[in-house]
Design goal:
467 residues; 5-stranded parallel beta sheet; single chain; alpha/beta; Rossmann fold; 20 helices; 3 domains; Helicase, Ruva Protein, domain 3; 16 strands
């Protein structure tokens, strides 16, 4: 796509001359006869470079420059100045203009100045992209001050600098990819990009090509050779997400490659050797999958050099306010809306919610509240229905004759294990919500922010009938 130039000048002859020069350079040109018309054009189509005359009818060039530098930071503007306006041109440079050229126009000066301006524009875009990528990569630190997260950070700090392979397990939404990126960020391979593969998202017939690459003509549609993920991850880390969803056939091939660190393209004969560190992740219990015949035991032990189990959000509820603050900062930066707040009653209800979708569910919830109540405070009565029900239930169950009697009752009649108490609550919650949605699994999964497959597994684990 050609770079786009906006010319703002009231003299038709100047616009024609500039258009001819710039189009000969392969550039796309837009014209405006006044400052007002030029700013209107900017509102619908931002160019890569602007030529702006100083003397214009109505709004003059310096005023237009002020608006451009204020509203379109970094957009290069080349001022066009007539004889006797050099001082004004210098003033324009101080205001942020990229360059200026004098009338009558010099072809060489226009070409050189436009090339320099476009190069500046490209470097600016690359700088923005780089800052965005660095910012994204730096946000791989886990948010939280709970004991579970402190321990997790400590373990990551130990294993990351090594070349040990890591198997990350945990429920959906607990942040397995974030942990993988945190390990990569602190590893000796951080200078090369992490290569991630979602094993569950690639069709069975394409996964070999995706992982190992293929030669031209290897199969129908292979009109050119392609590098696979293992090849791209040479010298870096390959993150195999949802490893438990691979077929046994692919598992066998993966095992051989992991052991030998060499492979061939699909349809190829040349052996390709790589140096790849592997991080795998799954939400499945691979030990059970092995017993069920769905996962290779030898691959399991090959991957499980350093096992890392992530805690569910219900086991680190004290991190919820910090996570909300973190998500809010990102949303404000992305959308420019005013942040929202949660009063203490709302926070307490959020802490009682079981969060079956874990941190991902919390993130989606915060975004929903952010869209609805930007710049406002979310109170308990503004929470979605599933949370309001929790509030009602808590008022009923939390109204004993005295606080001491309530505590005695909970201790004497309730579970003695904290994890079991939370599991009991989650089971009761799911059973109640299933009745509320008349047994409709799809609607229930959507309402509570959980994938259907995960919901089915939880219902089965708690022996809740779905018929």
């Amino acid at each position: 796509m050609a770079d786009k130039i906006l010319i703002i000048d009231d003299e038709e002859g100047i616009r024609i001359s500039l258009r001819g020069i710039l189009e000969d350079e392969g550039l796309e040109v837009i014209e405006a006869e006044s400052g007002e018309q030029g700013l209107e054009s900017l509102g619908t189509d931002i160019p890569d470079l602007i030529f702006l005359d100083i003397w214009l009818p109505g709004m003059d060039g310096l005023k237009v420059l002020d608006i451009i530098t204020r509203d379109y930071e970094g957009l290069p503007v080349i001022m066009i100045s007539g004889h006797g306006t050099i001082e004004t041109a210098v003033q324009a440079l101080k205001k942020g203009a990229f360059d200026f050229i004098e009338k009558p126009l010099s072809l060489e000066k226009v070409v050189v100045s436009s090339r320099n301006g476009l190069e500046f524009s490209r470097l600016r875009q690359e700088n923005i992209a780089l800052k965005t990528r660095i910012s994204s990569e730096q946000r791989v630190t886990l948010t939280g001050e709970s004991e579970a997260i402190i321990n997790l950070k400590r373990v990551i700090g130990r294993v990351a600098p090594t070349d040990s392979w890591v198997l990350i397990t945990g429920e959906n939404g607990t942040g397995k990819e974030i942990v993988a990126r945190a390990i990569h960020h602190q590893s000796g391979r951080a200078d090369r990009p992490l290569v991630a593969v979602n094993c569950a998202a690639i069709p069975e017939e394409l996964i070999e090509s995706e992982l190992f690459g293929h030669e031209k003509g290897a199969f129908t549609g292979a009109d050119k050779a392609k590098e696979g993920k293992f090849e791209l991850a040479d010298g870096s880390i390959l993150f195999l997400d949802e490893i438990g969803d691979m077929s046994l056939k692919t598992q066998a091939k993966i095992l051989r490659i992991l052991q030998e660190q060499s492979f061939e393209h699909v349809g190829g004969r040349k052996t390709i050797r790589v140096d790849v560190r592997v991080i795998a992740a799954t939400n499945k219990d691979l030990a059970k999958e092995i017993k069920a015949g769905n996962f290779r035991e030898d691959l399991y032990y090959r991957l499980k050099v350093f096992p890392l189990e992530l805690p569910p959000l219900r086991d680190r509820i004290e991190d919820i306010p910090l996570l909300i603050e973190d998500f809010m900062a990102t949303l404000v930066q992305q959308h420019g809306f005013k942040p929202i707040g949660f009063n203490q009653d709302a926070i307490e209800i959020l802490k009682r919610y079981p969060w079956p979708g874990n941190v991902r569910e919390l993130k989606n919830f915060v975004e929903r509240m952010f869209i609805m109540y930007a710049g406002d405070v979310v109170t308990a009565d503004r929470l979605p229905p599933e949370f309001k029900q929790l509030s009602v239930e808590s008022k009923i169950t939390d109204t004993p004759s005295s606080p001491d009697e309530s505590m005695d009752m909970l201790i004497s009649e309730g579970p003695t294990d904290l994890k079991q108490a939370r599991a009991d609550f989650e089971a009761r919650f799911l059973e109640a919500k299933l009745k509320e949605f008349d047994g409709n699994i799809s609607q229930l999964a959507k309402a509570i922010g959980l994938e259907r497959s995960s919901l089915y597994r939880k219902l089965k684990a708690y022996q809740i009938q779905t018929d």
